[in-house]
């Protein structure tokens, strides 16, 4: 838990009598403030425990960490172990794979490149990848890539695509079932292609662009695409649904689509920056804000650039309706928002992420200055994550300020 220190006051020339009068007040104030902070933490922990403990028991999750941000105040609650073999306890600095939450950084890199004057999101894909000229990517723009509305690209890069040459050949031959901007198909190849273009236009490799351009400016000092040797001891062991130990086995476009490993501390800081709660370079903040433009309505959900939002307050049933198998794996008709919707405050914004051995969920309500990140080292279904997030944030919202 992080608790802001009490305000310090400098005493100038003051009479002894005034000091004697003030001193007892200070003695009583400090313990009372500490007690209040302790009570707040205890109350928050009770809400978090009541949601997370049953989740871990039901799905046999070895370890997890929950990060909370309330009005700029951070709280971290670790559970269980980062590895069954070592029995190392999870901490707020344990590294977890965050899966598709990585896509929000790819979208941010693209908007950053736009503010750097390196690309325009309404331009067609083939303008930046001439090798795709004459293909269907002549009609697909970069916003389509960032909103899963390019057509019916598959969720995963096909297994027979093992390098960039084969990837380009696949894209050139691809025949979409739907015109761009008419259906949402959640697709790693889509956001992956956007990441390739953004990094290329910035004159960097994708890992370099994310780690040096984004992580460094965001103050995310413990986030990686490739975990360095001296940090491997902090890297949690993941477990699949059969409880077998696994870690990410990266394929083509893995870095761009699902490759980030980070901590609850760093990820919560990123979420807070999405709520404009940290001082970062103005161009980067504008880029982050731009990812929250609403482009398409998909049932109860509005598709931003990777991020998804819902009007708030929202019922759990309506929130879960945006996380069904049909939405996640199917082709959903969309309604374009014209003109695109400017970033909203009174909304529920979220993103899920999974790899073979990890599961993650991020949710926040900008108008309430309230956010949570949930990281765990076992893959388990999406609806329980969303339900736990809903229980926690709505429970915290009811607490007195």
TrEMBL record:
GO molecular function, one term: beta-lactamase activity
Enzyme class (EC, first level): hydrolase
InterPro entries in the cross-refs: AmpC (IPR058136), AmpC-like (IPR050491), Beta-lactam-related (IPR001466), Beta-lactam/transpept-like (IPR012338), Beta-lactam_class-C_AS (IPR001586)
Catalytic activity from the UniProt record: a beta-lactam + H2O = a substituted beta-amino acid
UniProtKB keywords: Antibiotic resistance, Hydrolase
PROSITE patterns: BETA_LACTAMASE_C
One Gene Ontology term, aspect cellular component: outer membrane-bounded periplasmic space
Any matching Pfam family: Beta-lactamase
UniProt entry tagged with the keyword Hydrolase: yes
Superkingdom, taxonomy of origin: Bacteria
Swiss-Prot/TrEMBL GO biological process terms: antibiotic catabolic process; response to antibiotic
EC numbers: 3.5.2.6
Span of domain Beta-lactamase-related: 48-392
Family the entry assigns: Belongs to the class-C beta-lactamase family.
Protein name according to UniProt: Beta-lactamase
